[in-house]
Amino acid sequence: MNGTLFQQILDPANRADPYPLYAEMRRTPVSRQDDGSYVVSTHAELYRLLHDPRISSEDLPDPPLFRWTGHPLSDLFVRPVRSRITARHRPFIFRDPPDHDLLRRQVMREFAPARVRAMHRKAEQLTHALLDGLRDRTDLDLVDDFSYPLPVTVICELLGVPREDEPRFQGWATQLATALEPDRRTDRENAGRTEEAFTAITDYLQGLIKEKRRAPQDDLLSGLAAEHDGERMNDHDLVATAVLLLVAGHETTVNLITNGVLTLLRFPEHLERLRREPEVAPRLIEELLRYEPPVHYRTRLARADIAIGGTTIPEGAPVVLLLASGSRDPLRFADPDRFVPDRANNQHFGFGGSLHYCVGAPLARIEAEVALVALAQRLQAPRLLADPPPYRPGASLRGPRHLLLAIDAVTPSASAELAA
Amino acid sequence: MTAPTEAPRQIVIVGASLAGLSAAHALRDVGYEGRIVLIGDENEPPYDRPPLSKQVLRGLYSAETSLPQRADLNATFRLGVGALGLDTLAHRIYLSDGTQIVYDRLLIATGTRARPWPNGAEAASSNVYTLRGHADAEHLARGLAGKPRRVLIIGGGFIGCEIASCCRDLGLDVTLAVRGALPLVHALGSVTAAFMRDVIRDRGVDLRLETEVARFQPDADSRVVAAILRNGQRIEADCVVAALGALRNTEWLAGAGLAVSPKGVRVDTHCRVLTATRAVVPDVFAAGDIAHWPSAIYGNRLLAVEHWGNAVAQAETAARNMVAGEAGLIPYDHLPDFWSQQFGLNIKLVGLPTGANQFAVVQGSLRDRRFIGVYGAQGRTVAAVSVDSARWLPAYRAAVAEATPFPPIVGALDQADIRPQPLARAVS
């Protein structure tokens, strides 16, 4: 098959518009690449594989060889032991049942509806505070000024990370998110940086967890750290889970919000409609998750031969689930390349599917709704200064690195007292 | 007969439940702008039935289970009006209020009703129930709320078992009388049915197999106080539910010259009804429980199913074909599926175990009460059942649809050695 097509998708030059490549990809629903991996690009085949018990999420490569630091104790003992622990206690996004189910269940319990609802108010306050801070500006970088800080603060608040520690997370999270980009995670230099970031965030979180156990608060990390029905998540799994939630909170919602603004500025009639009828937001955001999703693909491993789409994925083969392509499959969606905010029956893969369906989906929906409605209502005459904007490197966690806007003004908040 | 050449301007749907409403929605989805008239003999707008034998009986929510209607449906509902007769030559339907209505296209979606207890006088007792509609569910829920000392349920199908499960959730003593050797055996086959027998007993139901109720024993007020079995035994019960399956509402079609049987109205692969001489009636369609249809996936075997998913999918195909010309007709190739919720278990089945002679557990185990089982016939996979494992079912659905060699999906997570076993009693 065409081994270069997926490489073209990975190529940063195609980041701004990968969709024509996806369309080409879909001509072979399950397509073997030169490196022996298989890319799945059509809705029916993706849906089926997301629910296939022969598909494994335990597809991270073994920890890479280290760069020597020259400290024998560290190089020969501490780091190998750490690395084995890390390999055994991967976050549940990289685990299969039954371990996955046990960990996920505990996280879901802490993602209780009441706690997520409480974050709704928080997200509103933060949104308006961020916009109030832009009051005197006539141009802004939506990413740095808004879409990045909002979800970062929300996820830190939700987990119970002290506000003053937030800045330290940004670098760690960006580095750790490269674990979701297969072309980057096999790069040894990058792997070394990931290890360093992981060590640093682990040390930090272990301290924080100790603190949460000593003096529990009403936050997610305290809840995860506490004992429930005589069971307690072990520290290694707890750290791995916290890292996952932090990274996911840092690196995905930012794309949803930025892609949302970019899309609405490309189709100003929908921006105007959202401004006038904020109640269209929930369906508009579902369409956004279909049309410009924050996560474009995820990888898996075939545990056994799988006959699908006229071919057989052999046991052991890496599998790329090109979710964003499935969400644009004309066999599933009428007029798939059109942005239709009130699209009916919109079963997109924006949050993945099946057992690894995004745990944070309810939170992401709330953040996107609060953010997009507020931006639509408070940014006066927003214009794109660069289209397409520059993109972040990742082909999976795909989104603009900057989104430069010119505006006439920021309307003072009707609910300014909220932010006070 | 050839397809009608005129585009329809008035489409009449007889039966205002899931299939009827789904068809109306589908007509608007495909851009039909003419008149839609829905005729329903119940007095209320379309509602969902699956919750009636589950959440509603347990009092979890009221019997308010209306189906959502899109705002721009723009259909005329004639509720509380039944159809009494059909004249396909005059394109005319005779209604119970003495009026008539003509159609350009007709969809027959009159579904089924509960098979009543055969002895009419006994069936009329105030504490003898059946369950099909809202009114039935409200009536039975009130009966159960009165804390009967023992509920006797007659019939070991899904409705009977779900009602028994609700009764246990309500803390009521229950006897479930099943005529055959196992409950649910017709739908699930012997292995899963034997599994369910054990679950049902573990959950405290007095399950009586190979048991037939001969008659009821009334008190002075004609309320049932006990049932007498064929073998002479007596079961005291002050609440009786006859869960004897369904009868298809075809009576109004008598005299219309259509191919009607106890299995419903024969349709072709495009959901168009057939005459008694098997000619296609090009402007009359049927969908849902009432349709007796050829399944392309199962070699055009005629199926009559009472599944929620079939009602929706078949109505959609029928609706599309009602407004398509002869060249635009699409075939109906639905893979049957259904689900049940009972005794704390989620049970889902895809495909048709009918005729299967092999069964294998391919994930999980019966002991853990969490498994996927597959059914084989002539070496092919024909159906799959999941018990608290529905997340994997789509992969098995594909295996069934493609008639993958039995057993399918080797190398799955939590898969022990696959040991196919014969189905002791081939499902008929």
Automatic annotation (TrEMBL), chain B:
List the cofactors: FAD
Q: What parts of the sequence cross the membrane?
A: none
Q: Which InterPro entries match?
A: FAD-oxidoreductase/Apoptosis (IPR050446), FAD/NAD-bd_sf (IPR036188), FAD/NAD-binding_dom (IPR023753), FAD/NAD-linked_Rdtase_dimer_sf (IPR016156), Reductase_C (IPR028202)
Q: Which UniProt keywords apply?
A: FAD, Flavoprotein, Oxidoreductase
Q: Which residues form the Reductase C-terminal domain?
A: 338-408
Q: Where is the FAD/NAD(P)-binding domain?
A: 10-315
Protein name per UniProt: NADPH-dependent 2,4-dienoyl-CoA reductase/sulfur reductase-like enzyme
Q: Which species?
A: Methylobacterium radiotolerans
